[in-house]
Write a structure and sequence with these properties.
By secondary structure, this protein is mostly helical. It has one domain: Orthogonal Bundle (Arp2/3 complex 21 kDa subunit ARPC3), CATH 1.10.1760. It contains 7 helices and no strands. Helix 4 packs antiparallel against helix 5. The termini are far apart.
Length: 173
């Protein structure tokens, strides 16, 4: 008898794992598209995480967006130190969960997606950006806020539009 866990019983099928891995790869590609920032850790890495949160679930979105942030941290040399970037990754995972909750569960349709974009943007920029205070104080926070806000708007809008475009297709089944 094998001691290996049964993937079907855990809920993690091969298809589900493959989808998560593909979106992590898309986050890696997005992390190479940088948005000018004093710390360099702003880019299109979170768009796949926001999209997969809407399309496939909370956990998938949280995993993809957190790993996506760590990838952009690697490509910029962890400018805020590894522990702070780990904290930002956790904040990003929370952003993805809230993004899905507002966009899918709390409100439906276009209104839900618009609210998700607004709340996701605010959490991602003003909320997760607070981690910079531990490294450079309030001055760094204020300095990075415009680039974080711009990156958040771009990432959440692209994710919401992509999801809205294919929400009723067979691609999400």
């Amino acid at each position: 008898m094998s001691d290996a866990p049964d993937l079907k019983k855990s809920g993690w099928t091969v298809k589900r794992i493959a989808i998560v891995v593909i979106f992590i790869a898309l986050s890696a590609v997005g992390s190479l598209v940088k948005i000018p920032s004093p710390i360099g850790a702003a880019g299109l890495d979170s768009c796949p995480g926001f999209f997969i949160a809407l399309a496939f679930g909370y956990l998938e979105g949280a995993i993809v967006i957190a790993i996506g942030h760590l990838i952009i941290g690697v490509t910029t040399g962890f400018p805020m130190t590894l522990p702070i970037h780990m904290g930002v990754a956790v904040c990003m995972a929370i952003c993805a969960v809230v993004f899905r909750f507002v966009g899918i569960k709390l409100l439906k349709g276009k209104i839900g997606l618009i609210a998700a974009v607004i709340i996701g943007t605010l959490l991602n920029s003003f909320g997760a950006g607070l981690m910079a205070v531990f490294v450079g104080g309030w001055g760094l926070y204020v300095a990075i806020l415009p680039s974080l806000l711009f990156a958040s708007v771009v990432n959440t809008i692209i994710a919401a539009i992509a999801f809205y475009s294919i929400r009723n297709s067979k691609l999400l089944n």
